[in-house]
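Entry for 2-acetamido-2-deoxy-beta-D-glucopyranose complex. Fields follow.
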Amino acid sequence: MKLTNCIVTLATTLVSARPQDDAQPPNPHEWMAPGPNDFRGPCPMLNTLANHGFLPRDGRNITKDNAIAGFNDGLNFKASLGALLWDQAIIANPEPNATFFTLDHLNVHNLLEHDASLTRADAALGNNHIFNKTVYEASRQWWTEEIVTPEMLANSKIFRQLESRAKNPEYRFTATTEAFSLGEVAAPVVAFGDFETGSVNRTLMEYFFELGWTKKSDEVTAKDITGMTTVIGKATNLLTGGTNDMESMPHGKRNLHSGMF
Ligand code: HEM
Ligand SMILES: *[C@@H]1O[C@H](CO)[C@@H](O)[C@H](O)[C@H]1NC(C)=O
Ligand SMILES: *[C@@H]1O[C@H](CO)[C@@H](O)[C@H](O)[C@H]1NC(C)=O
Ligand SMILES: *[C@@H]1O[C@H](CO)[C@@H](O)[C@H](O)[C@H]1NC(C)=O
Ligand SMILES: *[C@@H]1O[C@H](CO)[C@@H](O)[C@H](O)[C@H]1NC(C)=O
C-alpha cells in the first residue's frame, strides 16, 4: 500500500514538475486561483482580471498604468475609460497622493463597497466581499428568460435593496451608492451584452458571476457605460404608461378619492 502511494506521489510530482518542453509558450493569461497571500475584493471583474493576470495576480499595485493596460487587454476598454474608472477608485487607498490601490482596499464598507450587492452579503449580515450563494440566488431568480432584459436586471437591484432595507438595520444606500450600483448592475451588459437593447445572455452572466468572464470584441468607451447606466436607471422606475379607466369606476369611489387628495 505504502509503496503504491509512494509511486503515485512520485509520478504526479514528475508529471506536474515537467517543464513545458514542446513549442507551446505558457499562456500569461491562464486562469490561476489566488494564493493565500493574494488580495481579492468585492468586484467580480477585478478579481477575475487578477486571476487571469490582466491585473497583478497578487491583487496589489493597481496603478493607473496597470489598470489601463489590464482593462484594455482583458476587456477591450478604451484607455480613457480605464483612466476614468481608476480615477474614481484611487480614494480607496487612504495614503495621500497614492499611486496605486489594492483589491483589499476595496473591501472597506461604505467607501466604494456598499449594501444590497447582487452577489455579496451586506457587511452587517455577513462577509461583504466574497461570493455568497444565497445572495446570488436572490438576484438570479429575476433573470427569468435566456436573454436578460434591463427590467430583469433592475428587478434584481430593487429586490436586493428591498431585502436589505427590511433585514439590515444598518442599511445604507446614498445617492452616490445609487450611481455606482447602477454601473455595477449594467456591467454585465457592458462587458458582454448588447448595447442596442441593454440586454445580456443569461448563460454568459451566470458564467461570469459563478466562474469568470468572457471578452468582448468591440471597443468599450465611457459613453457606452453611461448609456447602459441610463437604460438600467430607467428600468428601475416602477411606473407604467397608460391611463386609468376612471369612467368605468362607480361615481362614489371616484369622488371619494379625488376628494381625499
Ligand atoms: C477601477 C475599476 C473598478 C473598481 C475600482 C471596481 C470596484 C468595485 C467595487 C468596490 C464593487 C463592490 C460594490 C458592492 O458593494 O457591491 C464592485 C462591484 C461590481 N463590479 Fe466593479 N470595479 C471596477 C471595474 C469593474 C468593471 C470594468 C466591471 C465589469 C465590466 C465591474 C463589474 C462589477 C460588478 C458586476 C459588480 C457587482 C457585484 C455585486 O453586486 O455583487 N467592475 N466593483
Ligand atoms: C507597480 O506597477 C508599475 C507599473 O504600473 C511598475 O512599474 C512597478 O514596478 C510595480 N511595483 C511593484 C511593487 O510591483
Ligand atoms: C500631495 O500632492 C499635493 C499636490 O501636488 C501636494 O501639495 C502635497 O504635498 C502632497 N502630499 C504628500 C503627502 O505628498
Ligand atoms: C450570505 O448571505 C446571507 C444572507 O444575507 C447571510 O445570512 C450569510 O451570513 C452570508 N454568508 C456569509 C458567509 O457571509
Ligand atoms: C447564450 O450564450 C451561450 C454561450 O455562448 C450560447 O450557447 C447560447 O446560445 C446563447 N443564448 C442565446 C439565447 O443567444
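NOTE: Residues 96-97 surround 2-acetamido-2-deoxy-beta-D-glucopyranose (ligand 3) (CB under 6 Å).
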